[in-house]
Amino acid sequence: MNPAIEICHVGKCFSVAGGEFWALKDIHAVIPEGILAILKGRSGSGKTTLLNIIGALDAPTRGSVRIGGQEIAGLTERQRDNLRRRQMGFVFQAVSLIPSLNAWQNVEFSLRMAGIREKRRRRAEECLRLVGLGNRMTHMPAQLSGGEQQRVAIARAMAHRPRILLADEPTAELDSAMAAEVTRLFAELAEREGVTVVMTTHDVGLMDAGSMVIELENGEQKRQEAGKEVMGNEADKERES
Questions:
Q1: 50 — alpha (psi -120 to 50), left (phi > 0) or beta?
Q2: Looking at per-residue confidence, does 228 or 157 come out higher?
Q3: Can you state the percent helix, strand and coil of the chain, rounding each to 5?
Q4: What's residue 231's pLDDT?
Q5: Dihedral (C-alpha) 214, 69, 2, 157: value to the nearest 10 degrees?
Q6: What is the pTM of this model?
Q7: pLDDT class for 227, splitting at 50, 70, 90?
Q8: In the predicted model, is pLDDT for residue 74 greater than 70?
Q9: CA 57, 63, 68, 73 torsion: positive or negative?
Q10: Phi-psi region of 12 (alpha: psi -120 to 50; beta: other; left: phi over 0)
């Protein structure tokens, strides 16, 4: 698998009263295309900071991040904005659906914002079916459960066919069963759509769904594990060689 995201010895420092605070310290990882990668760690471990750097929402103090082989720190603000709008999708803990628009309209609106002019209705309907909401397209956000609202948010984030989908604690407000279901959905979308999904969570019960798990603790990379999919592909390569 080709690398989608290359995190090269990234460090992030913030100025605080009395000195400096290193939120990230020498993080190094390569995330392949078309998998679900999970950033694991407790609150304050640096997960969201790293996700923001990957998403070109923030810049590292040290090191670099490459998306599809392109170093993003050297881009202009306009180029970074285009990268986010055209090649990335974002899902957050707060779904932030527009309450006056139904599920289909929320997804279609995101395509308008991305500058997509053709076949918006067809793509919006396709994405809602992919997340299991084919029969809920005309429902308003208030008529949907928390899990269903998060599914609409996922459909909205992937509607413009991003290469990378970044999800920051998307299951934090869901019960265990729904959290597991949403995480499995991310894994399925990575396989079906070929999108690389990076999801943060502190829930150890969701780890098995990821093809890669990167654990952070106090800004340090404690462990990186390849899931069954990545390990299986590596085993296949070994047999072929």
A1: alpha
A2: 157
A3: 40, 30, 30
A4: 38
A5: 70
A6: 0.87
A7: low
A8: yes
A9: positive
A10: beta
Task: Dig out the tokens for 179 from the structure.
Answer: 């959290």
User: Using one digit for the tens of pLDDT, what is the confidence trace for 21-42?
Assistant: 999 999 999 999 999 999 999 9
Tens digits of per-residue pLDDT, 128-159? 998 999 999 999 999 999 899 999 999 999 99
How many angstroms separate the CA atoms of 82 and 70, rounded?
A: 14
Q: Which domain holds residue 210?
A: 3-240
Distance CA 95, CA 168 (A): 11
Alpha helices by DSSP H, listed for the chain, are: 47-54, 77-87, 103-113, 120-130, 146-158, 176-193, 228-240
Going by pLDDT thresholds of 50, 70 and 90, the confidence category of residue 230 is very low
Q: Which two tokens stand for residue 47?
A: 């997960």
Planar angle of CA 31, 35, 39, nearest 5 degrees: 60
Q: Which amino acid is located at 74 in the chain?
A: G
CATH of the domain at 179: 3.40.50.300
| Cα–Cα distance for residue pair 13/222, rounded to 1 Å | 19
Number of domains in the chain: 1
Longest dimension (CA), the chain: 57
HSE-CB for 24 with a 13 A CA cutoff? 27
Q: Which residue has the tokens 């047999």?
A: 239
